[in-house]
Write a structure and sequence with these properties.
149 residues, Alpha-Beta Plaits, five-stranded mixed beta sheet, two-stranded antiparallel sheet, 7 strands, 30% helix, disordered N terminus
């Protein structure tokens, strides 16, 4: 199972989240497939589930959790593509993708260092690599420059 962290940049205020601090929102996403648990012991899986519950509680109590959700098995996914103006839904994720999004957290933290700290805990529990990437609430400046001329 691979775990990826995508970091989003400062966004609009979120209802219920304290404002006034220079906080940033980050989306922490876990990727994997049903085979991600192959070879894992029932004890390891139980510990992983308990860790996920603990981190949800901790982030909620600290006021950093905006939203979190696990997702259904990728075999239940539908991929939608418009063909000749008509939306067509097919079973499953893209065939080229061996892994898909299995869950995520959106957190509102003081800085990138805190998001990396959270990601490190998830990485250690999942025994998987983490990607940290800033996400954008608007197109990049160079794109905006191209379209404004």
């Amino acid at each position: 199972m691979l775990v990826w962290l995508r970091l989003t940049c400062e966004g609009a205020p979120v209802p219920g989240v304290e404002t006034g601090r220079d906080e940033m929102k980050y989306m922490i996403m876990t990727f994997g497939g049903t085979s991600g648990l192959e070879g894992k012991s029932p004890e390891w899986i139980k510990e992983m589930i308990e860790f996920m519950h603990r981190i949800d509680v901790e982030l909620t109590e600290s006021g950093e959790l905006v939203f979190q959700q696990g997702l259904a098995d990728p075999s239940q996914a539908r991929t939608v593509k418009v063909q000749q103006g008509v939306p067509v839904a097919t079973d499953g994720p893209f065939a080229e993708s061996r892994e898909s999004l299995v869950g995520f957290w959106v957190v509102d933290v003081e800085n990138e260092a805190r998001a990396v700290e959270i990601a490190a805990r998830i990485s250690q529990a999942a025994d998987a690599p983490i990607e940290v990437r800033q996400c954008m609430d608007a197109p990049p400046d160079d794109v905006m420059e191209q379209i404004s001329t």
